[in-house]
Every structure is written in C-alpha cells, then in structure tokens.
Amino acid sequence: MASRFLLEIIDRKLKEIMKNESIFGGKILILSGDFRQCLPIKEFATRSEITDLTIKKSNLWNSFLKLKLTENMRADKNEKEFAKNLIEIGDGKEESEYITIHNYAILSPFNTIVDKYNEEIIKKFPGEQYDFLSIDETEQNSALQITPEILNSLNCANFPKHKLTLKINSVIMLLRNLNLSEGLCNGTRLQVTNIGKNVLNCKIISGDKFGEQTLIPRITLIEEKKFPFILKRHQFPVQLAFSFTINKSQSQTFEKIGIDFTQESFAHGQTYVALSRAKSWNKIKIKLNENENKIKI
C-alpha cells in the first residue's frame, strides 16, 4: 500500500500542472486497494507510526467517494468457504494462524511417548517460551524427610509435571475438573491465548463450550495414593496436548491424526479408539517399528 505522502505529492503536482488549486488540480482520481493487505513500510516504526502513514490519515481522504467491492474475483467461484475465510482473516476475526490446530493430534498408548512428542513440538513451536516450575511439598506431619529435588522429579498420571513449558497458541489439556457447567473438566482441550504468572487465558477447543474464552489459575493439587506420603503440587492443572494418550482421545474427532504404535496397545479397545478418531483412512498416519507392517488389534 502506498503511503499518504505519495497521495499528497500527487495532489500538489496536479495542482501545479493544471494551475488549479482545487483538489488534484480539478481532475478525477480513482484509487483502488484493500486495507486488509500490507501497510506502508517504515523502518523501525511503531504500530501507530505505520497507521499514520496510511492514506486514511491524509486530509484528502474525506474528499473521496468510497465504494466497496464485495466479491473476491480471484478466488475460485466454487470455493466460497475459502473466500469467506480470507475475509475473516483480513478483518482479524480469525484469532491466529493456528486457528485449526485443534483438528490435529498425535496419539499413543503411552504417556512416555506422548511426552516426547510434546517436548519436541513445543521446542519448534514459534513464539516466546514461558517456563513454570511447581512448588512441591509433603504433609507437614509426614515423618519422611524428602528433598525438593526428589519431590520435583515425581510424576504420575493426571498430575501436572514440575516444569510446564508454554507458548502463545500452544494446545493444553486440563487434568482436573474445575467447573463442569463451564466445560472445564478433566480432558478438556484448550488453546493458550495469553500467559500470566498465575493465570492462563485460554480458548476452549473441545466439547460443548467450544470457542468460549476462559481463565485457568494455578492451584494446589494433592496426590494421596501414588506415593508413601501425600504430595502437594502448586501448578497449573494442565499438560501440553499436541499429543496425548489414546484413552484421553475418547469422544473426540479430528481432521487428521497420527498414531504412534511403535509400542503396542496394552488394553482392550485402544486400537479401535485410536483409528476411529478420524473420518477416513486417508486422514490417518500410523507409525510402526521398522521391522513391523501390522498393528495389534
């Protein structure tokens, strides 16, 4: 997009050429463009400075008759959804370029494999990284003297890890029921939209409350059965969920899935559940060990 200064130069030059002090020397000037496209460029400029460069900030702008074109002539006429999505993106209604990330998942029977995928994906995921460390302690009346380092290393199912790494737009899953009426239950998937020290702003991306905004606070979680003592962990009750276990995927449907079967399913129905998360075979990719060509049913 040309800057307002170019428009104002055209105005001055036409006045000089036509020897007429009317706007644009009395000539009719037709402009066309799309404010959804790239703005004028100015090195090291702030947002407000770039906005000030647009022709809308020129005193000449109010002299134009504005006409709006409504049909995208470049897009295929049969691709109405594509044209609609382009307009929504241009208008800022699509909240991020990761808007459809909830439609994809990597599944595995085992938490250890899931954790590896999530660690690799969050490393490659764009954006600033935020690391949150939990505060771990035992019951005050516990006779066991356990160092913080040992407490930090302890993990179990449906319990947040000591270290949680997040980025804006990353996908997470709730590990506790927080508010069932608001759709915040164990297994709910969310997309992080803003990150605070003690609160996460998120968009729900699964279940009946899909698309709604919510807040996830840090809370103190208690594990009483897994260890010979009561463990208290103050942390966000979530885990990364680019990848998650087959059991956690139940009741959900995805556009595309990858299934890691390098370790066989260990419980009844897991293979069936994993394969039935997508709508067709061409939406499923399966990873096996190099010497295998079949999956265990």
Automatic annotation (TrEMBL):
Residues 1-96 form the DNA helicase Pif1-like DEAD-box helicase domain. Its EC number is 5.6.2.3. One of its GO terms (molecular function) is 5'-3' DNA helicase activity. One of its GO terms (biological process) is DNA recombination. Pfam families: PIF1, Pif1_2B_dom. Its cofactor is Mg(2+). It comes from the Eukaryota. Keywords: ATP-binding, DNA damage, DNA recombination, DNA repair, Helicase, Hydrolase, Nucleotide-binding. It catalyses: ATP + H2O = ADP + phosphate + H(+). Residues 149-194 form the DNA helicase Pif1-like 2B domain. Belongs to the helicase family. This is ATP-dependent DNA helicase. It comes from Meloidogyne enterolobii.
